Structure formats: structure tokens, C-alpha cells
Amino acid sequence: MLAFKDCTLGKLDKTFGLKPLSQMAILQTWLEGQSEILPDEQGYILRLQHYLRENVDNWNEYELAMHFIGPMFAWVEFNYQRQFNLFGERPFSGVVDGVEMGGKPDGMIATGYREPDKPYFCFQEYKKERDPEGDPAGQALAAMLVAQEVNEHQIPVYGCYVRGRYWRFMALQGKEYCISDGYTATREDIFDILRILKVLKQMIIEWVK
Fold first, then answer.
1. Of 16, 34, 151, 171, which sits 20 to 30 A from 204 (CA to CA)?
2. In Å, what is the CA distance from 174 to each residue of 121, 152, 157?
3. Using H for helix, E for strand and C for coil, what is the string for 110-125?
């Protein structure tokens, strides 16, 4: 089995004949989607941002997930009416072009309440800012490739990876994928990150319907 943690973008491009794009319409549509940031959300996010600024240079991956990434996703409430939920560190595997792949993504949003079933989005790989191990983009894309097979290529697959204060969003459709420019959570970008996550939730609600 090819483990997600051993994947790099270069290895995946070569193995599966993938084509990285500098722009992709489905990614831009997601990133440019609109969702209002309410006053109570602004206060909450600014408190999280202050905590991040104070600690991001020293947190390890678990601390980053526990103190910042988890609260960001929890605020959006991806456990929608028990139709889909946010899962973490769940075993996930499949076969892509004859290659068995698997691992435990840091996070994924999938149908199901107690256990993940059909993955709709989001394989986040969390990395500490200093001296991270592995290729977070490759690890996230590997899980997205498996998700695409599980979904029988019926919808695009979206994801993101986080390295300290930096967030980058991803889209995959067929053999083509695109990775966004970085969003810096210690700056005003934090409100864009929250907006993008809220738009994602609305997209998944429509898919479930």
C-alpha cells in the first residue's frame, strides 16, 4: 500500500499522470463564494487569532490542531443534521489506477454521523510551522485522489492543508488539480479563511440534497 504520509506532489504527478494547474474554475468559485461574517464571529475569530500569534512559532502539530484549527472548524459546525460530519484520524483507503493507497487524514468531512461514509471534502494535513515532516500538499492530494474514487468521480474533491499560520486550499477533478495561494491566519486573511469554510458547508449541504 502507498501510504498518504509518504506521498509528495512529484510522486503523485508521476504515478498517476496528474496535471497541476495555476488556475481552476471550480477552485476560484469556492474561494470567491460569499458568506457574511457576523459580529459575534468577528470577536471569536480575533480572539483565536491573538492566541495563534502568541504561540504559532512554538506549537507542535497537535497543539496547532487543538488550539486553533479545531476551534475554527467547530465554529462552522460541520455536523449538519447528522447528515455529514467532520472526522479526524479515521482510517481511509482505496484503489487509484490499480494502486492501493491509505492512511489516516488529519480531517475529512464525509456523510455519516458516527463513522465516515462518503467523503465530500476536505483532507487537511496539519503541520507545525518550523521543520515540518513530509509534504503536506502531497499527503492531502493523495487522500483526495482516494476520495474521488470513492465518490465515483461524481463531484469535484476539495481540500486544504495548514502549515502553522499558512492555509492553502485545493481542488481536484479527474487528473487535474490546483492549489491556491496562501492565506495567512495571523493577518486579515483569517476572515477569508472563515468565509471559505462557511461557503464549503453550504456547498456540501447542496450536494447532500
1. 16
2. 15, 10, 9
3. EECCCCCCCEEEEEEE
The string over 64-101, giving b where at least 16 C-beta atoms fall within 10 Å of a residue's C-beta and e elsewhere, is: bbeebbeebbebbebeeeeebbbbbeeebbbebeeeeb
Q: Which of 110-114, 138-142, 183-187 has the lowest mean pLDDT?
A: 110-114
Q: How far is CA 144 from CA 4, 20, 131, 186, 207, in A?
A: 10, 14, 24, 27, 17
What pTM was computed for the model? 0.93
- Are the C-beta atoms of 108 and 143 separated by less than 8 Å? yes
Q: How far apart are CA 169 and CA 178, in angstroms?
A: 8
Kindly provide the residue ranges of all beta strands, DSSP E only, lying in the chain, ordered along the sequence: 2-3, 19-21, 84-87, 92-96, 99-103, 107-111, 119-127, 157-163, 166-173, 176-179, 183-184
Pick the CATH number of 2-208 from 3.40.50, 2.10.70, 3.30.450, 3.90.1570: 3.90.1570
pLDDT reported for residue 127: 74
